[in-house]
């Protein structure tokens, strides 16, 4: 039976007021960086913050909600995602210069786009963003980081929209930033972020970004679908070290395999399924635990239903 997007709305009459794009049973696996996974039962791509707030204020309370940006660090299971999936587009809210060193940045803005904008403005401290293949909202939510810096270093305050459509602002000291995690809940949708760097010569910024991108090119797989870092580093070891020590650096499952460039990256050789990736990841976790007595944790977010 065909589903109607109207089924998830308390007030179907607001549908004509929405300016975003709505879909039912829409394939989203192909949009993920791993290029695997099923369909979203309901999918919405908002046009702006007001549009998203209007939608959320009209949803049935029991609807399951999932929010994504670039889908760069996400594994969508083959059975797809039930409930409502919201994709925040890269145009969401844009980038506004607030002062010489502060910017109001939309949650859908690409990390790399912001890094390049800061380069043109002579704002330092944001160079590490050029090495993260995601969006600002996702980066804040998981406190993403690379090359010695994390989002907690540049966030001043975060503007949210609650599941009820209410707008909420949280200062940096109200958010618990941990290693690749925060205390933010899934029902708090990041709309925009106030971020701060410092004045710096653009030539120096450019040199750092060139070095970051060179290191990324040399140390991370290129030309194959991948989801970024698969497992979190532990207190005493890098995840790739543990994978190598356990003998799993050449492991594979179906067409999902460990990268020969960086062991903490899993790549899609062409026809892998989400199940292949999840099984491979769980095989690695089990072997590292058995061989070294250390439990690896997924850094990739796994969502959706098994077939």
Secondary-structure map:
Layout: E1 21-27, E2 39-45, H1 49-56, E3 65-68, E4 74-76, E5 81-87, E6 95-97, E7 102-106, H2 111-121, E8 123-124, H3 136-141, E9 145-146, E10 149-150, E11 155-161, E12 167-171, E13 177-178, E14 181-182, E15 189-196, E16 198-199, H4 202-219, E17 226-229, H5 239-245, E18 252-253, E19 256-258, E20 265-268, H6 274-292, E21 301-303
Parallel strand pairs: 2-5, 3-5, 4-21
Antiparallel strand pairs: 1-2, 6-7, 7-15, 8-16, 9-10, 11-12, 11-15, 13-14, 17-20, 18-19, 19-20
Helix pairs in contact: 2-4
CATH architecture of the largest domain: 2-Layer Sandwich
Report the sheet-strand fraction: 25-35%
Coarse morphology: globular
The helix/strand order is EEHEEEEEHEHEEEEEEEEHEHEEEHE
Strand order of the largest sheet: 6-7-15-11-12
- CATH fold title of the largest domain: Uridine Diphospho-n-acetylenolpyruvylglucosamine Reductase, domain 3
How many domains? The number is 3
N/C terminus separation = 18 Å
CATH class of the largest domain: Alpha Beta
Rg: 20 Å
Helix proportion of residues, in percent? 10-25%
Number of helices: 6
Properties at a glance:
Uridine Diphospho-n-acetylenolpyruvylglucosamine Reductase, domain 1; 21 strands; globular; single chain; alpha+beta; 5-stranded antiparallel sheet; 6 helices; Uridine Diphospho-n-acetylenolpyruvylglucosamine Reductase, domain 2; Uridine Diphospho-n-acetylenolpyruvylglucosamine Reductase, domain 3; 3 domains; 4-stranded mixed sheet; 307 residues
């Amino acid at each position: 039976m065909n589903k109607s997007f109207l089924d998830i709305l308390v007030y179907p009459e607001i549908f004509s007021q929405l300016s975003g794009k709505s879909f039912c049973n829409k394939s989203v696996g192909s949009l993920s960086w791993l290029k695997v996974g099923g369909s979203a039962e309901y999918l919405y791509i908002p046009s702006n913050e007001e549009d998203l707030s209007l939608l959320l204020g009209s949803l049935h309370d029991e609807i399951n909600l999932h929010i994504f940006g670039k889908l760069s660090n996400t594994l969508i299971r083959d059975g797809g995602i039930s409930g409502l999936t919201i994709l925040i587009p890269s145009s969401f809210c844009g980038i506004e210069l607030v002062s010489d060193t502060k910017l109001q940045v939309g949650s859908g803005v690409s990390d790399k786009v912001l890094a390049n904008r800061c380069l043109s403005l002579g704002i330092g401290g944001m160079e590490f963003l050029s090495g993260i293949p995601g969006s600002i909202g996702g980066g804040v939510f998981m406190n993403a980081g690379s090359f010695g810096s994390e989002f907690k270093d540049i966030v001043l305050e975060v503007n949210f929209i609650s599941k009820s459509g209410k707008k909420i602002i949280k200062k940096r000291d109200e958010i618990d930033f941990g290693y690749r995690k925060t205390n933010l809940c899934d029902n708090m949708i990041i709309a925009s972020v106030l971020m701060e760097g410092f004045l710096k010569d653009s030539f120096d910024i450019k040199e750092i970004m060139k070095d970051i991108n060179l290191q990324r090119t040399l140390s991370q797989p290129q030309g194959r679908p991948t989801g970024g870092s698969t497992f979190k580093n532990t207190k005493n070891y890098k995840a790739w070290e543990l994978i190598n020590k356990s003998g799993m650096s050449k492991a594979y499952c179906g067409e999902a395999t460990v990268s020969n460039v960086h062991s903490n990256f899993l790549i899609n050789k062409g026809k892998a399924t989400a199940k292949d990736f999840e099984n491979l990841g769980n095989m690695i976790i089990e072997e590292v635990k058995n061989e070294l007595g250390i439990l690896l944790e997924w850094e990739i977010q796994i969502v959706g239903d098994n077939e």
